[in-house]
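#onboarding

Welcome to the new folks! Below is a worked example of what a typical request in this channel looks like: someone posts a single protein sequence, and someone else replies with the predicted structure as tokens. Don't worry about understanding the tokens yet, we'll cover that in week two.

Example request:
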Amino acid sequence: MTAQTTPPTRPVAEAEMRASDADRDRIAEILREALAEGRLDAEEHAERIDTVYRAKTMGELEPVVRDLPAAGGRPRPADTEHAYAAAAPAADQNLIAIFSAATRKGRWRVPARINAVAIFGSVEIDLTEAVFPQQRVRINVTSVFGSVEVRVPENVTLRSSGSGILGNFEVETHDATDPDAPEVEVNGFALLGNVEAKPKRGAWIRDLRDRMRGDRREWSEEPRHERRERIDALRREGRARRDAVWAEHRELREQLRAEREERRERRRDRRRLG
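Example response:
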């Protein structure tokens, strides 16, 4: 009598694996960041969050963030040991202020090159809460009767090769103790203008990392019903904003229609009188 052999068990594909609460919270964090950066509006964010907390498998979670940075739940730069871990480089950014002001601050992905031009205007570049996808950042500055101000965390390397022409080009250079820390180089010139770059005392990249971990803990520990209430509030806000835009569009369309009718009436009157 031949012994029956048990067929080998087919391994579960990653997409078929059951998603945990931690997996859902990780995807929700990516969506929250996308909302803060303007990649998603409030309605899109609410719809995707709703999908996240209904998802049962990893395969249902991955499409929710496929079109966002670090899609598929891969670690964000701030989830790693340092806020300047390797990641896909961001596109170059131009900040131009001509008789105006331009500002870039808050939590943002710093590109390898930033071009700042201030002509009778002011530019502010604040890197104290930024994420550095690459180690070296070059800021090219042109200031003509204007001002450019750069602020960096204390634990990055700051260098300069700029000059002032009847103006002020002041960069407080220093070297970070961590050899892997980001390096920010400020180049350019100030013609009858002002350029200033220096560390912001008390601002450290590691502080940002710890603060964000605390935010994620608060999010994961928040009761499910409270989380649902906030999601519903975001959805209502998005719908109200959409309805307001459509109402304004309808009003404008009616106004244009009335103006066209008025012009036709005037042309008919001219024909009758002519």
